[in-house]
Amino acid sequence: xxxxxxxxxxxxxxxxxxxxxxxxxxxxxxxxxxxxxxxxxxxxxxxxxxxxxxxxxxxxxxxxxxxxxxxxxxxxxxxxxxxxxxxxxxxxxxxxxxxxxxxxxxxxxxxxxxxxxxxxxxxxxxxxxxxxxxxxxxxxxxxxxxxxxxxxxxxxxxxxxxxxxxxxxxxxxxxxxxxxxxxxxxxxxxxxxxxxxxxxxxxxxxxxxxxxxxxxxxxxxxxxxxxxxxxxxxxxxxxxxxxxxxxxxxxxxxxxxxxxxxxxxxxxxxxxxxxxxxxxxxxxxxxxxxxxxxxxxxxxxxxxxxxxxxxxxxxxxxxxxxxxxxxxxxxxxxxxxxxxxxxxxxxxxxxxxxxxxxxxxxxxxxxxxxxxxxxxxxxxxxxxxxxxxxxxxxxxxxxxxxxxxxxxxxxxxxxxxxxxxxxxxxxxxxxxxxxxxxxxxxxxxxxxxxxxxxxxxxxxxxxxxxxxxxxxxxxxxxxxxxxxxxxxxxxxxxxxxxxxxxxxxxxxxxxxxxxxxxxxxxxxxxxxxxxxxxxxxxxxxxxxxxxxxxxxxxxxxxxxxxxxxxxxxxxxxxxxxxxxxxxxxxxxxxxxxxxxxxxxxxxxxxxxxxxxxxxxxxxxxxxxxxxxxxxxxxxxxxxxxxxxxxxxxxxxxxxxxxxxxxxxxxxxxxxxxxx
Length: 675
Known about the structure:
- It is built from 26 helices and 17 strands.
- It folds into four domains: 5-220, P-loop containing nucleotide triphosphate hydrolases (Rossmann fold), CATH 3.40.50; 228-409, 3-Layer(aba) Sandwich (Rossmann fold); 466-559, Orthogonal Bundle (Arc Repressor Mutant, subunit A); 586-674, Orthogonal Bundle (DNA polymerase, domain 1), CATH 1.10.150.
- By secondary structure, the protein is an alpha/beta fold.
- The termini are far apart.
- Helices cover 45% and strands 12% of the residues.
- It is globular, with a radius of gyration of 27 Å.
- The strands form four sheets. A seven-stranded parallel beta sheet has the order 3-4-2-5-6-1-7, with helices on both faces.
- 46% of the residues are buried.
């Protein structure tokens, strides 16, 4: 008899109810139907395949036991094993450790194991030691693994990071295209469950087609993360360093990640933070493997609260208590930013996502697109792309970068921009979508205000720049799409530079027709490009041409305005973050702390968690999440039943940690009463 999904959820993971979307996906899988789940980071995608995997394994274990008891077992019964396909070696290790702590029997199979260790893992799997196995997609093409897969019963194959199968996404990996062929050669087709946090409608179509999902139950739970504050700040390079230093100093006990676009930037910022006494780690592909591992471990176990890293870090790091993610440079795409920023606040508590950027970042990104292959750095083995695939992927990366630039420049709601990009149904009255990407997001309309981003919390003044906008469009048309932004600015402002005079651009009717500053002309050009009135080509040396809406600029009644930000109230941002979480979870004491309540007890429990985690050689969040500790502060459990009722406490954790934590809570309460 199959175990109840809710019973499995409670026994292993300590929760009485599923999060939104989880129960429907779990039910569809256990009913034998393929699924596609699109859920934001931190929404609990892993539970959607872990619960069915454990339920199916328990059912198989019970069936084998019954057969033995009835003396009907004439031959050995093949072991039942769920496969989870993931490109993220670090995620495999984290997930296996967390599942072991919960009382499950997991394993992983990837290149971090020696050949002898791989043989041992496969042999143990044949003998039924494991319920769930994580495997890198490259291993599926290994004849030895294919032979192994034919000897066990595989009722479920879960494909994590499923967007990697699509060339239209930001992280295409050719090895993912071989998954369907692997599944087709299994003795019996399993249920196939695909999951991702970042998939537009077009990418979702690719996932269904390329993975050959059979009439999948598809669920998109929504991309909004109400507990996350989003901020964008345009700063010079020196100002960025000062901003990061001031920010982390204000939060010495909080865990956070600072992403930089290059290894050089990582090293420079890390050295500056260390000089200023900040306990910081660093991570990028240029460091020795031993140092990367040590730095990552120091961050995961909270010995170094700040991690400065390239995007080579973090994919699959299941650290729930990250309170902020700062991007020191412009990310390459909305997908990349959403995924990286989404590593903050995975426990549902308020967290901040701040993006620092300037024009130099755009130049760096264009250079990186031209100079690097787009397979990313987190796969087990680098995927080789054909020349045609390289060209297509590079063009797609330029498209995604333009949309990322639009996010930085929009004066509308930042959350609305991202939600619309992923196809979220928000109020679209008056919205303008980014040019060249049907169905994607644009500047959020005036009517949509999330109340928890820098644009919504800032104050703006509207500036009418219609004459300047019309002059720019006329000038671009006269220049014939052969020159870049700098030359357009020079012509409009009447520059006598050698380049302008040599090309006879001083003969154009638009020469010297504007008096605004170069910075103002560039700002209006950027907005015109974002709204489709002019276009900017790809490459390291982009040229400016007319856009699809250029004719509108010369029509009667045309108007064009910019919104200029004055300032943002930081205290209002903090209040808004708390208000959004309270609105999501409720404001009563049974669901959420009042700010400041039990802060001392929380710190004592966090110190105890760190001590126990160090003894067990696991990350602190694997013992208990911050959210579980806060629930203990509210509920003050004194019995096994009360402790088991704390969200995130399962039977195994009750047996392992319950007595110790309840004793600490009782001691704290005795001290309070004595006062």
